[in-house]
Amino acid sequence: RKAWLFVGSDRGGQRAAMMFSLFGTARLNDVDPLAWFTDVLARIADIPQNRLHELLPWHWKAAQQQAAEEIAA
């Protein structure tokens, strides 16, 4: 049941730690990690490098709330 604690290599462990950090950051910002990560994966290839900061959880949440308010209005 705790197989996720063991990784096949050091590099795999570093990648797993990075992913856990990203999901933890999303949770700390009251963002659904799955919704955020799904949207980021769908948009990351089409967004310019100088706008990547928009995909961070706290910016993403604000943009989602603004879009929801515009739809409601």
Provide a descriptive summary of the structure in words.
With 73 residues, this protein is mostly helical. The protein has one domain (3-72). The protein contains three helices and no strands. Helix 1 crosses helix 2 (33-43). The chain is elongated. It starts with 9 loop residues before the first helix and ends with a helix.
Indicate how many domains the architecture comprises: 1
The helical percent reads 55-70%
Mean pLDDT figure = 89
- Rg result: 15 Å
Care to count the β-strands?
0
Output the number of helix runs.
Answer: 3
How many angstroms does the end-to-end distance come to?
47 Å
Percent in strands: under 5%
Spans of at least 5 consecutive residues with low confidence: none
Order of helices and strands, N to C? HHH
Shape field: elongated
The major pleated sheet works out as: none
Helix- and strand-based class? mainly alpha
Note the main attributes of this structure:
elongated; 73 residues; single chain; 63% helix; mainly alpha
In a nutshell, what does this entry contain?
The chain is mainly α and 73 residues long. The chain is built from three helices and no strands. The chain has one domain.
Task: Chart the SSEs and their pairings.
Blueprint: H1 10-28, H2 33-43, H3 57-72
Helix pairs in contact: 1-2
